[in-house]
Amino acid sequence: MLGFYIHVPFCHGKCPYCDFYSRPDSPRKMDAYVSAVTAALAPWRERLAGRELATVYFGGGTPSLLGARRLGTILQAVRQDFSLASGAEITLEANPTHVDRAFFQEARQAGFNRLSMGLQSANEEELRFLGRAHSPQQAAQAVENARAAGFSNISLDLMLGLPGGSREKLGRSIAFAASLGVEHISSYILKVEPGTPFAARGVQVPDEDDTAEQYLFAVEELARLGYGQYEISNFARPGKGSMRPETLPAPARRAATTCCTGGGRSTWASGRGLTPSLGGGGFTTPGTWRASSREIPLWTTARAGTLGSTPC
Hints:
Layout: E1 2-8, E2 10-11, E3 23-24, H1 27-41, H2 44-47, E4 52-60, H3 67-81, E5 83-94, H4 101-110, E6 114-120, H5 124-129, H6 136-148, E7 154-160, H7 167-179, E8 184-189, H8 197-201, H9 208-224, E9 228-231, E10 234-236, H10 252-259, E11 275-277, E12 282-291, E13 294-304
Helix pairs in contact: 1-3, 3-4, 4-6, 7-9
């Protein structure tokens, strides 16, 4: 089976720790992006005939900024061009501040059956430090709206290893996320990447021993609350481990920045062919689409392998 990751590069603003590829959103650019993605999928229909998709993951960026109509157009193209396995997991990343109940209802009707939202912290001061626009209450409301729209599989992201962080603060964030009844929690360690605002400001993260202590605390606390660890940063209720590919190339969203900026790689805009290597585990299709006089990178990946929920 295959897993598809589709990178949606649009954001209202870039978080100071983020080095994933993203661009400011505009209706014109988003419409061009949707057209480029749907056109790029079609040529693979015959080459992947007989292969089933176990998972489709829309990451970003902030995919929810596309709006449910555009997202549905891409997902419909995936359904038309490829065979989805029974019970295929179709995940959409969303920002708690950019969604309401109507959006979730439309996304659910379009075929999305799993959500991933970036809570990051339940502490107001940490959210401000991370440049996040939402409050814990807005995140809780987003989960409630998603539930009302019919989503029964929701994941929240948490971040640990923050400057000034502590077991107490992390424990409050974990307890808050668990109290919302979500099925899945991802817990990531903050890393200050070159070229980010955090790097420019000289942000210093805790030393490795302190960060390791927080991580081990998170593993123990999540387990106590019923979230079994099935990957290094991923925790789930029994039977709710994500079916997304275990490995996205290098990693997926960070690689999008370099895969799409030349370096001799083929691009859709140039008309040269893609460079698949399904026998070796996957293929990556860097490319560009034109918006006005500028070229904007576009990136999609598929991963081959045996995919399925990991028992917890």
